[in-house]
Description:
- This protein is of the alpha/beta class.
- It has two domains: 3-89, 434 Repressor (Amino-terminal Domain) (Orthogonal Bundle), CATH 1.10.260.40; 96-291, 2-Layer Sandwich (Endonuclease, Chain A).
- It is built from 13 helices and six strands.
- The chain has helices at residues 3-7, 9-28, 32-39, 43-51, 59-69, 73-88, 104-113, 134-139, 149-162, 181-185, 191-207, 259-275, 279-291, and strands spanning 118-123, 174-180, 211-216, 230-234, 244-248, 253-256.
- Strands 3-2-1-4-5-6 form a six-stranded mixed β-sheet, with helices on both faces.
- Helix 2 packs across helix 4, helix 2 (9-28) packs parallel to helix 5 and helix 11 packs antiparallel against helix 13.
- The chain is elongated.
- It starts with a helix and ends with a helix.
Amino acid sequence: MSEETGAAAPALCRLQLAIELRRLREASGLAATSVAKRLVVSSSKINRIETGENGIVEPADVMALCDIYGADSEQRDTLVGYATVTKTKRDWWQKRELAPVISPGFKAYLGQEAVATAVHNYENEFVPGLLQTEAYVRALPPPTPGLSPAEMDKLVAVRMTRQEALHRTDSPLRLTAIINESVLRRPIGNAEVMREQLGHIADLATSLPNVRIQVVPFTLGTHPGMNGAFTILRFGERHPFQPIVYLENRATAWVLRKPSDTDLYDESFTDLQAAAPGHTESVSMIHNAIEEF
């Protein structure tokens, strides 16, 4: 088992189940609605299993699906084993004590981010979560009003744990972050917090080959990111899933999966990359902003 698999075993098992069960269904020529009727479940349940969204996949459901698809005994044993992992183990973000600081929508996102190979993120108001320092997290408005000090500690722990993906020795997460210049200029906390935060971004951008930063300057004027922040997750050749787009606001969070939707955001991100200064010039902009705090 690789370091990546060991660190995110349930999430990887859900993803592998999704890929294999969808492949078996398509090979059998059955529509998801037909399978749902035979199992006496909703079509949305089959869809959630095939997109890796169900936190727990029941081994009994997998056995029934294998029967419907005519899977051989070796396939059945492997897939039931994957399902058993999802039922008996928990990803770190599924821990009960973290529930007050992780919304259901963001919990679903973390399950996808854990198995993604690349993240493309545009932010216009604050530093991307994968790049935030502890002091910066504490200075931001909490996602849920009225968090206790203990809950704030848990929120910080969630942000810091997510960032470990950038430092994996086995297939580190590739992050391309495009941030608006306003993120560099808006004081969050005091000047010391901002200097530390901006320095942290610059350090990661120069020390980690899997982290690329671009800054959208005020002088650019109108640009493709003006409709708001968004995140695109990509899963690579090993996991043949289509990219997804994650969006959130104060009240809720949601994921877009339709190619017609994800293509729009992919085009916007590509246009932002072309319009913004390159990585080296952007890092220089960050250093200049540090000097102004």
